[in-house]
Amino acid sequence: MELMHIDLARLSVSSLNMRGTKKTCDIANILPSVRARGVLVPLIVRERPGTGDSGEDSLPAYEILAGKRRYHAARVVAEEGGGIEDLPCAVLEPGDDAAALEASLIENVARLDPDEMTRCETFTRLVREGRDVESIAQTFGLTALQVKRTLALGNLVPRLRHLYRDDRIDAVTLRHLTMASKARQREWLALHDDAAAYAPTGSSLKAWLFGGASIPVSAALFDVAAYPGEIVADLFGEERYFACAELFWNAQREAIAARAEALRDAGWSDVVVMERGDAFHTWEHERRAKAKGGRVYVAIGHRGDVTFHEGFVTVKEARRLEQGQVLDKVARPEVSSTVNAYIDLHRHAAVRARLVEDTGLSLRVMVAHAIAGSALWSVRIEPQKAPNDAVAESVENCLSESLFDARRRAVLALLGFDVDTPTVTGGHSGDDGMCGLLSRLIALDDAAVLRVMTVVMGETLDLGTSLIEMLGEHMGLAMADVWQADDALLDALRDREVIGHLLADVAGEKVAAENAKATTKVQRGIIRDCLTGTNGRRSRESWVPRWMAFPASAYTERGGVGSAERSARIAEASEPEAAEPDAPIALPQAA
User: Fold this and answer.
1) The domain containing residue 315 runs over which residues?
2) Which residues are CB-contacts of 57 (< 8 A; sequence separation ≥ 6)?
3) For the sheet containing 295-300, what is the strand order?
4) Contact yes or no for 316/348 (Cβ under 8 A)
5) Whole-angstrom distance, CA of residue 122 vs CA of residue 18
6) What is the domain count for the chain?
7) What pTM does this model have?
């Protein structure tokens, strides 16, 4: 770097100047000083490319990298006839744009801290010139995190940056928006522009971005490295968040269930998994050791946090223990929510696959829906939502779904629709709308229309309801014809007592008694061997657990099996009354 004095006429503002070339600068506070003493602090300049190489009479021109305000103040004084002298300048070596950008920013930061957007734009240009985050941080005396935070502002759509510069968005809102996708930013802008809408700001914006309470990565009990969903980094809060709450809770529930089973295997009398959001109050409980009947209470917060309170009983139970009484074991559902979902999904698939073969019954079910209505009769399609990928894959690949899909494709072809359309219900009705679709149906014979109707009925059949139980029993549905046990079910089973019942069911009471003290993993392995006929076990064919059969029943008295409870209600409601019943109405059989 060389220090020299340069004529005002040979100077101009560089496009690399951090303050820009077009932006008007305020010189009011330095103009009196320049009038009185001239420019004392050197400008940072470099020779402008393509000048000074045409002979001795051609003097080079220089571009100003830092000192724009001093330069403009000197021009004003010169125009006033103040006789301004040549300006002192520190001349950089030509050609290094990154060094020029750094010089501009360093000099300006030392004089006046620039706004965040200006700093972001300059840092972004430095990155494009080949500087990495670490070198930028070292140059400006910042941490790497501070540089990343500044660069994150570059992820905003241009209009958000302009609104911030105009003080129409606060800093907290702007920083939260850096975690949003461009599409999500535009959604927020649409709300901001709509006078009748509410655009969330501040902390409520984070809840809006994450669909409720934001869940930090630190709350996860599972291996985050294997998590399939998106994780968003909050550079300003030094935390990361799960972008999809549903995916997080699926993984977190499985991790909680596994941890609870491990605690039971470790000898705790019971592990009570509390409802999400329920608080564990220490004043309602007293400490008790594992050997004295203490339990583990699992409290789950709405933001994903899980706390295991080991060694507690309720205050009432503590008094009973002091009197020498034996505590009743807290009743847990026989099966978990995942197993219940598995049972309901498979039974639903089996019922609707059989229902599409019975046009007479489908017609009557449809009429019943039309008269009484149902949760799905809007008309909406049953989404068959599974709690995890394993259950979803199990249902998608089962025989019942294959049979139903074949009939659905046939109906789509019959109506002239694309056979790869996911559903008949809610499908495209053509350019002529409902009338065009009705014209197609009128042209079909009754048998063809009934085939269409059966598929529509299957697609709108409500999952996990008593209707599934009633239809399955009425049709005499044998689940063994369309279903066989798979890993999705066996891996979801964690209750020791229930697994013991299943082992006796599959392998016999003798094998179950011999392996009563084995781990649940070993017991599940024996069940698999019996179902597949491997490892010397005799093959158990056509086995269906009680929950899956029609009618369904449970293995214990603890309850919690949706299919069994619904079957029991139907059986109770269908018991014959004292009066002689009317003659039954004969239903037509399957077509």
Assistant:
1) 251-322
2) none
3) 271-273, 295-300, 306-314, 285-287
4) no
5) 7
6) 4
7) 0.47
